[in-house]
Amino acid sequence: MDVLRPEDVMALFGVGSSSVDCAGLKLTLAEVFRISGHGRLGVDVRELPRYEVVNAEDGWFYLEPGPYLAKYSEYVRIPNGYIGLAIQRSSLLRMGVSLYTAVWDPGYEGRGSGLLVVHNPKGVWLEKGVQIAQLVMIKMTGKTSMLYRGAYFRET
């Protein structure tokens, strides 16, 4: 398994050094949604819950304890032959916040999201545009014919 260096990530995505961290592409906070309904997932059914927009006050989101959907600012295209793993910043951990993510499959493109869970009983303030994760890129053993074209393809 080869993990790409920041220099390789810059070349892969055509971005400058301000868009990468020590081990991946910076993912920054664009939008936050409170999860306000139930979801349902079965073999032939996918029903996402209702979401309520959390408005930023003077560019800051105040998040009380609980689960949120965090939308990233960056629109990303994962090339064939690579996967991405979004890993949260350690500063979030130190504040009592977790960011859960999934594999970014080859062929995925869009503005992804993660499950942000505030465990801190006092809540947390997050500034719009702050880096909350880095997308670490892993090179596969080769290109694949199984490119992602699922429900979240080209999400914005």
Could you name the key traits of this structure?
single chain, 156 residues, mainly beta, 9-stranded antiparallel sheet, two-stranded antiparallel sheet, 15 strands
Q: Would you mind describing this structure in some detail?
A:
With 156 residues, the protein is mainly β. The protein has two helices and 15 strands. Strands 1, 2, 5, 7, 9, 10, 11, 13 and 15 form a nine-stranded antiparallel sheet that branches. A two-stranded antiparallel ribbon has the order 3-4. A two-stranded antiparallel ribbon has the order 6-14. The longest helix has 8 residues, at 6-13. The protein is globular, with a radius of gyration of 16 Å. The model has no long low-confidence stretch (mean pLDDT 96).
Number of contiguous helices? 2
- Helix share, percent: under 10%
Mean pLDDT: 96
Residue runs with pLDDT of under 50 for 5 or more positions: none
Order of helices and strands: EHEEEEEEEEHEEEEEE
| Shape, principal axes of CA atoms | globular
What structural category arises from helix and sheet content?
mainly beta
Span from first to last CA? Answer: 30 Å
Q: Quick one: how many beta strands?
A: 15
Described by strand count, sense and barrel closure, the largest sheet is:
9 strands, antiparallel
What value does the Rg take, in angstroms?
16 Å
Measured by DSSP, the beta-strand proportion falls in 35-45%
What oligomeric state best describes the polypeptide chains here?
single chain
